[in-house]
Task: inverse folding
């Protein structure tokens, strides 16, 4: 396994000395945002982690290695338009063996963070159970992967392009604790409220860190999902988002878009429909999540 893992020297040094490290995903850079905002955002997100005293480790697959921590040139390679694969766990062996460039989803990022011994991971939104999954069976590999990785995932909840209720059910089945910070409702990415109550609420980073230690110390393997609502000033109301989302889903059905293409298609369509407002919201919430993940990481290592 270690032949395929390349830990950036700063990250490795941090892990050895017990300095908190926060993993960051790269699909959001390559397939979730347009150039050059994606590159600028990735740099700003890393800076948010550093401001709290932690080390950022952006994760991707480059030149046959699972990289935990990358340099600016590698970040540019992922951000510039070009042939970058969207890599979930299924795609890892292919992209590794062909030595092509891969941006990792939540599932693959979690797995690589787990391999490297990184316990905290910040993203925008995780994948989940899609609407109409009863027919399509479209459930993101992000969910089952949570069973295998001892990593806490900080996200702004899940978008209502998914079925939020079914996603929470699936997480319960997997035995994944879901905590929301600062409110009782589970958040819906662009919107603070989803209409679904969060299974647990935990407001203090130190309390979350204590829960993580407790879970892993007593041998309960797997992830914890920490939901962090988007800051109020960047929120787009749920009802308003719902219009764009229904339209996006209708067009995706008409165009017969499926499989790994569906999430990037919906994200790009919604960004266009909202004339960039959704992109600004997305950037704000990712930074907010990076800060919270770093705070939890600091408390975890205190
Ligand atoms: N949801 C978002 N933004 C994203 C993604 C999901 O709100 O950028 C990306 C993440 O990388 C996530 C992936 O892991 O899409 C899930 O894709 P799929 O549904 O194909 O598993
Ligand atoms: Mn899918």
Result:
């Amino acid at each position: 396994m270690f032949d395929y893992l390349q830990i950036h020297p700063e990250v490795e040094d941090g892990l050895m000395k017990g300095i908190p490290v926060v993993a960051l995903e790269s699909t959001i850079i390559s397939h979730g945002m347009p150039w050059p905002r994606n590159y600028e955002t990735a740099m700003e997100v890393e800076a948010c982690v550093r401001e709290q005293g932690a080390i950022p480790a952006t994760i991707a697959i480059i030149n046959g290695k699972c990289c935990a921590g990358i340099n600016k040139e590698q970040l540019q390679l992922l951000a510039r338009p070009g042939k970058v694969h969207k890599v979930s766990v299924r795609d890892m062996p292919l992209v590794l063996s062909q030595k092509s460039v891969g941006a990792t989803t939540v599932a693959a990022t979690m797995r690589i963070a787990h391999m490297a011994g990184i316990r905290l991971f910040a993203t925008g939104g995780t994948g989940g159970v899609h609407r109409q999954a009863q027919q399509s069976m479209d459930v993101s590999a992000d969910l089952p992967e949570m069973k295998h990785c001892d990593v806490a995932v900080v996200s702004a909840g899940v978008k209502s392009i998914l079925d939020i209720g079914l996603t929470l059910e699936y997480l319960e089945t997997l035995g994944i604790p879901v905590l929301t910070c600062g409110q009782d409702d589970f958040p819906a990415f662009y919107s603070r409220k989803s209409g679904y109550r969060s299974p647990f609420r935990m407001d203090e980073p130190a309390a979350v860190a204590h829960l993580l230690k407790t879970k892993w110390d007593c041998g309960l393997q797997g992830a914890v999902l920490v939901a962090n609502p988007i800051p109020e000033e960047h929120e787009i109301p749920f009802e308003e988002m719902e219009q764009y989302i229904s339209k996006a889903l209708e067009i995706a059905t008409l165009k017969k878009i499926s499989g790994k293409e569906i999430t990037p298609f919906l994200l790009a369509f919604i960004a266009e429909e909202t004339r960039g407002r959704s992109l600004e919201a997305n950037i704000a919430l990712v930074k907010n999540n990076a800060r919270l993940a770093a705070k939890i990481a600091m408390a975890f290592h205190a």
